[in-house]
Design goal:
heterodimer; A: 457 residues; alpha/beta; 4 domains; 14 strands; 43% helix; elongated; B: alpha/beta; TIM Barrel; two-stranded antiparallel ribbon
């Protein structure tokens, strides 16, 4: 068994010289025992054996030199033997390293990638803390790399922080830059690094503020910033509370956008352009009534007269509604009265504007306002006047004849009651049918009153 | 009201900047501080120094100079009519924060934007002053990205380009009509004109550098822009068409898609709920297909029925399923362009296949060593020892067979 001795775990020069000799002498990879100072229980001070100077330089492709530079930094004890084997095979197949489908190439390239990633993560996650010492500011970092990469990475930190005095401490070795020259010193412990830096509080504030709680993706974060690095990153202390508070912050953010009372809501709705209806209509006709109403009446949409007056249910249908409410023993002044859609939809003819029912898209767009009204008024019962109101509140097409007059569970947990729209009563031709339907309507309203009382009690 | 502390200002002005998606710090000229007396380096590849729990990289100190604004754009939290708390940094405060965080290795540099105060020119001048102070007084060599104020004078924008690595102007919304309704004071035509001017300046500086090494640099990392997705009714295909046009006309390095995110104090003209985040992800995937995989817009249409990219599968897979006749592809013979169309094969893996097949005929086990998930490509490729048969005819060849339950 042939011994090959290296001065430190990433000793590229020592490896290169040893490899030359081994290849020149025809030693197979299995016949070499690589002994690395500072690795596998060997002390770091072990002096390297002088390599035979006579071995001729080894001609290898440039790609191999690049690869070896990274691979020697890996923590895998087999790295030297693998490189040795590749060097031998490269003599016969010069393009071996282009062929990732070869198992040896695949393994070496995987080692290279892993070292590359470690180098990159060290550049990303080293954090300096400033201490004032007699010679001026000194920046000190503590870092635990996965592989033997400290020496290989010093160039980056020198090029970037050329005008600073800095020290990077790792368990295996430390690097110190005094502004002019680099010194490699023995390893250290975390305790040797400074405990705090006032700027870190500001950095953590920045980290908290730049996080958007509406898009929580902790897995994506942990993939790029694995947890093993967190203990040396000051901002990572904020992660648990940010993740835990995200949902609450998002809903608070959404709630902050909503007006707090009905007057504010009506004012906000006055400029609504959520659907195209705002363009032709005169104004938004918002709901009205006391904020603590037990009954909420929801119609379809404002008509011609409502559009002019700016108040719901003031035209012929509204007057009929008022009479029927009175017959049912309900005081309209104590109800909240509104519509599923807040703008008048019509076809304009030369003489008048003819009502058109809203589409599902208009109802959907206006649903936002209705939800806000429901949230503020919190009625005991919602009376849905007609199919459009039923659709808005139940979220599905409804047939009034089939579902009227009885309590219905609304998707948001509230209770509703479906009946006809008063304008339906106005459209009936025969007086007998109109009288009968009116009686049924009043009957439904009575049922609503009883239900609201029962639920409020 | 008591004066705000530096920390309070940082909180307000970073919070206001977080709706900007870009944090890239790569692709600029290489430079370092050795022998200069200054600090900072850029080495081609940007570095993400941290990640927020929203999964986004933190590479730059991304802040606004002020969040006061004379404009009233509905989608923006800083609009005039919003009730957010206002703050303003001094030029010196931004410079100190940037240098302090940089020296501790927290950032690659600065991404500075601003609400518009007084006038576009006044605001732009303040931004330029920060960059100039960093570069000239402190010899800072890190990355600087400046947001360009639309309608600022060309001279100021030109000066900004001399100090900054990247300049950007946000297109904001995919359709000019939406900009007219949601941001009535902005004008799509003027925004595009500014982009075109930037493009010309960048190209000219690059050309001059080719002939004279001492020619001044101008935004060596190019320009980028951002589009808000889901605030108006534009579908995915028209969003991609807009992006494609921006790449072509103005030499954009990147178009960022930012899923509209509900903002505090939001305007009633906006949808109350955010679009699914995965929509933004699908747009980025489709954007990649256009730029790196050789797909054209009209080809993407077959992956996006009714103009919408499917949310449950990536657009390349959707395209492959809609164009089954193009598969399977022979891994040992197919040209690069065809290999790139196989779902699961990216430019990197395709390069490996091309290099490897000069040495050997790839069998499926060889192919499996070249990529991360061999199962994904299985239905779409052939090797001497593998032929997909029934797989391509199934509705979703990647769906896993489900174990039937024994007890209902």
């Amino acid at each position: 068994m042939r011994r090959a001795v290296l001065a430190h775990p990433a000793d590229l020069d020592g490896f290169r010289l040893a490899l030359r000799a081994l290849v020149a002498e025809g030693v197979p990879p299995a016949g070499v025992l690589w002994e690395v100072s500072g690795e596998g229980g060997l002390p770091l001070a072990d002096p390297p054996a002088a390599p035979p100077a006579s071995a001729p330089p080894l001609a290898v492709p440039r790609r191999f030199a690049e690869l070896a530079e990274k691979v020697v930094c890996h923590s895998d004890p087999a790295r030297f033997a693998l490189l040795h084997e590749a060097a031998l095979r490269l003599r016969n197949s010069r393009r071996l390293l282009d062929d990732r489908a070869d198992p040896l190439t695949d393994r070496l390239l995987a080692l290279e990638t892993s070292v590359g990633r470690d180098l990159h993560k060290m550049r990303a996650f080293v954090r300096f803390r400033e201490v004032a010492d007699p010679d001026g500011p000194h920046f000190i970092a503590w870092f635990e790399p996965e592989h033997h990469i400290l020496r290989a990475n010093c160039g980056f930190f020198i090029r970037r922080f050329a005008n600073m005095r800095w020290t990077i401490l790792t368990p295996e070795a430390s690097a110190h830059w005094d502004g002019a020259a680099l010194h490699i010193l023995p390893g250290a412990t975390r305790a040797a690094a400074p405990g705090d830096d006032p700027l870190e509080a500001l950095w953590t504030s920045y980290y908290r503020a730049i996080f958007n709680p509406a898009r929580l993706k902790p897995a994506a974060m942990a993939r790029e910033m694995p947890k093993k690095y967190w203990k040396n990153l000051p901002e990572a202390a904020a992660i648990p509370s940010l993740v835990a508070g995200a949902a609450a912050r998002t809903s608070a953010m959404l709630a902050a956008g909503k007006p707090a009372d009905l007057a504010g809501l009506a004012a906000a709705a006055a400029t609504c352009t959520r659907c195209p209806l705002h363009a032709a209509a005169t104004r938004t006709v918002f709901g009205e009534g006391p904020a603590d109403a037990r009954l909420m009446l929801v119609g379809e949409q404002p008509g011609d007269q409502e559009d002019m007056a700016g108040r719901p249910f003031v035209g012929p249908a509204g007057q009929l509604l008022d009479q029927c409410l009175a017959d049912a023993g309900i005081d309209r002044a104590r109800c909240y009265v509104t519509n599923a859609v807040k703008h008048f939809r019509f076809v304009a003819t030369p003489r008048r504007r003819i009502h058109q029912s809203p589409d599902a898209s208009h109802i959907e767009a206006c649903r936002w306002w209705l939800d806000q009204e429901l949230a503020l008024v919190r009625p005991a019962l919602v009376v849905m006047l007609g199919a459009s109101a039923g659709r808005a509140l139940l979220g599905r097409p409804v047939t009034v004849g089939r579902e009227r007059g009885r309590p219905l569970a609304l998707p948001d947990g509230r209770t509703g009651l479906l009946t006809v729209h008063p304008s339906y009563l106005l459209r009936l031709d025969s007086p007998e049918a109109a009288a009968a339907e009116r009686a049924r309507f009043v009957e439904d309203l009575r049922a609503a009153r009883a239900l609201a009382q029962a639920r409020a009690a | 009201m008591p004066a705000l502390t530096l920390r309070q200002k940082l909180e307000i002005l970073a919070d206001a900047a977080k709706y900007d998606a870009s944090c890239a710090s790569s692709g600029t000229s290489r430079r370092h501080a050795l022998g200069t007396g200054g600090m900072g380096s850029t080495e081609g590849m940007g570095i993400c120094h941290s990640y927020a729990p929203d999964g986004r990289c933190i590479s730059l100190l991304k802040i606004l100079l002020t969040n006061s604004c004379i404009l009233d754009c509905a989608f923006c939290i800083n609009r005039r009519s919003s009730s957010v708390r206002r703050a303003r940094f001094t030029v010196d405060e931004v410079v100190r924060l940037t240098l302090g965080f940089y020296a501790r290795n927290c950032i690659e540099g600065l991404f500075l934007s601003s609400g518009i105060i007084r006038s576009p020119d006044y605001t732009m001048e303040q931004l330029v002053r920060v960059a100039r102070t960093l570069r000239e007084d402190h010899d800072f060599r890190g990355y600087i990205h400046l947001k360009t104020i639309p309608d600022a004078s060309p001279e100021l924008v030109h000066e900004a380009g001399r100090y900054a690595d990247r300049l950007s102007i946000n297109i904001e919304l995919p359709r000019p009509e939406s900009l007219a309704t949601l941001a009535p004071e902005k004008d799509a035509g003027r925004i595009e004109a500014s982009m075109a001017r930037l493009h010309a300046d960048i190209a000219e500086a690059k050309d001059a550098r080719r002939r004279f090494r001492s020619a001044p640099r101008f935004a060596p990392a190019g320009q980028s822009t951002q589009m808000i997705v889901g605030a108006d009714a534009a579908d995915d295909l028209s969003i991609l068409a807009t992006a494609d046009g921006l790449y072509r006309r103005h030499g954009m390095r990147r178009v960022y898609y930012s899923a509209y995110s509900p903002i505090p104090d939001s305007s009633s003209r906006l949808p109350p709920a955010p679009p699914p985040l995965v929509r933004e992800h699908r747009l980025y995937q489709a954007d990649w297909m256009l730029r790196f995989y050789g797909f054209t817009l009209s080809e993407l249409a077959s992956a996006a029925p009714a103009g919408r990219l499917p949310l449950d599968q990536d657009p390349k897979l959707a395209w492959a399923l809609a164009n089954r006749a193009a598969f399977p592809v022979d891994v040992n013979r197919a040209p690069r362009e065809l290999l790139l169309r196989v779902p699961g094969l990216g430019p990197k893996v395709v390069a490996r296949i091309l290099a490897s097949r000069r040495h050997r005929t790839l069998r499926f086990a060889d192919l499996a060593r070249l990529l991360a998930s061999p199962a994904r490509v299985k239905p779409f490729v052939t090797t001497p020892d593998w032929r997909p048969t029934a797989l391509l005819d199934s509705v979703d060849p990647l769906a896993r067979p489900r174990q039937l339950a024994l007890f209902g």
